[in-house]
Write a structure and sequence with these properties.
The complex is a heterodimer of chains A (256) and B (319). By secondary structure, chain A is of the alpha/beta class. Chain A contains 7 helices and 13 strands. In chain A, strands 9-8-7-10-6-1-4-5-11 form a 9-stranded mixed sheet, sandwiched between helices. With 319 residues, chain B is α/β, with parallel strands linked by helices. A 7-stranded parallel sheet of chain B has the order 7-11-6-1-4-5-12, with helices on both faces. Chain B has a 5-stranded parallel sheet with strand order 15-14-16-17-18. A 3-stranded antiparallel sheet of chain B has the order 8-9-10. Classes of the chains: A alpha/beta (256), B alpha/beta (319).
Amino acid sequence: MKVAVLMKRVPDTASVFAVAADGKSVETGGLKYVMSPYDEHAVEEAIRLKEQAGAEVIVLSAGPPETKETLRSALAMGADAAMLVTGAENAGPRGLAKALAAALKRMAPDLVIAGKQAVDDDASQVPERVAELLGIPHASVITRFALSGSVATVDREIEGGSYTLEVPLPALFTTQKGINTPRYPTLPNIMKAKKKEITEVGVAELGLGAGDLAAGMAIESVSLPRQTRLKKIIEGEPAEKVRELVRVLRETEKIL
Amino acid sequence: MSVLVILEQRGELKPCAFEAAWAAGRIARAAGMPLHAVYLGPALPGAEQLSGLGIAVVHAFEDASLAHYTSDAYVPLVTGLARELNATVLIGSASALGKELCASVAAQLDVELAQDVLELGWDAGLTARKPIYAGKVLADLRVSSVPAMASLRPNVVAVVRDESPVPEIVRHPVPASAPRIAVKEVTQAPPGTIELTEAKRVVSGGRGIMGPENWPVLKSLCDALGAALGASRAAVDAGWIHHSHQVGQTGKVVSPDLYVACGISGAIQHQAGMRPARIIVAINKDAQANIFNVCDYGIVGDLFEIVPLLTEEIRKVQS
Ligand SMILES: Cc1cc2nc3c(=O)[nH]c(=O)nc-3n(C[C@H](O)[C@H](O)[C@H](O)COP(=O)(O)OP(=O)(O)OC[C@H]3O[C@@H](n4cnc5c(N)ncnc54)[C@H](O)[C@@H]3O)c2cc1C
């Protein structure tokens, strides 16, 4: 069985963000980059399948050359091979999904797993688009995955509950936190990962043209959310503090 | 040319359906286009609920097989209708299922989609404001594909109804299909449970609650406030509560009027989930806790003393 994992290199969201001079992007100078946290769950789930059922795990990303570092960390977790698609850096979610789908067509995986969203643009749509482009069934935000023969049973989250679904492979799923705890790479695995292959493929080679990659969505400006909290510490004896809190919530804030 | 809005149901129309319809109605008026809506599910519950939102026509796909969402069943119907109506704008809800549906429809229509937006606008085309970098930055976007698609985050707009009448209902046949995906089981929270992302009030507990046996302390406050229960990742990782309660960067983003953080230190990843709240109250025994830098009102004290007093005081003023 062949399992493909989609992943993205993103800035660590613990970073401090500042608006860049163009007003349309953020300063990238001081940012530290990591694998998007939800993708770690996707990699972990794939590696478990490798351990349980001997699956071959291939990680796939589109991005700048530095993305290789991120792919390398997935290899260190235990993935077998990696592929980097280049030339789609300026595409929107529509074009990015086309590039990834074209790469996946070549691999013909039985299963595709991706994080539910990448915490940079938070576009939250690329995996679903990939599945639609490949014409395979899919389900998002899963918190449980079990495989029996060629049918996956998954729990997918909904507000205030969950659905249990049966989905025949080949299929695509996006992972939510809670599905597993991603492992840390061990030193021997980090060493092994250095020798594993990362294939690079350009968008032209995948048969994509400018029309496929043109972005039909653009950021016109970015801003930092207004964050002026009152930061009022209420003093007094416990009972007084509570009475005062309830009073301001009622009278000043009109919440209660 | 029209604006089309997707109405999400779970037996009943969901609050986010009215919110999306209201937001789409404003776009339709600004753009001078009629507003159509699409409903998929069992028999449409009470069309009169849909008055006052500016909807001209509701296209209803009513069939028991559509009671529960699957991309297999829903995507072709919404895609087909958007094409048939020649929709210029297509709006959905950024709920768990709504995001999956919108992404899939966008792929089929080969158009762009702004997912999980906080605001929508019309300026010779669709504009939207959406959080990026886990909510630490806001992006103002223009979606220029036709149709232009966006999904609206639940619980961020206040629906104000006007005098517009009950929409016309056009029932569409539901073609028999052989879905690949089978819904085996649906687990719903007990009735009356308030969903975090839709809640107007949220009370959250962190490592400071010390163990799962202490949730009743916070649950009493939830009951008094009519609030949903949230948790920090520390509480979830300790196994004290299911991760569906987690608020934060790798949990849920909540947007209540009131957020009460109890025994939570205020880590940056937790802030990512509570940032949209209008008023944040913090209860923590450590006066130096970072939560006091990011709250509106803080009480330094032991939550096991403060929270029961607060519950009692709220009950008192409410009666
Ligand atoms: C990639 C990544 C993603 C993350 N995502 C999330 C996320 O989605 N959500 C999230 O919450 N965290 C997330 N975290 C974890 C986050 O960094 C913090 O570790 C976590 O939020 C801490 O939870 P806490 O505040 O409950 O615990 P602590 O930081 O241990 O704080 C407990 C607080 O309780 C107070 N306290 C103790 N006893 C009492 C008492 N009796 N009365 C009053 N106060 C008391 C203490 O003073 C302390 O301030 C993430 C971390 C990473 C690296």
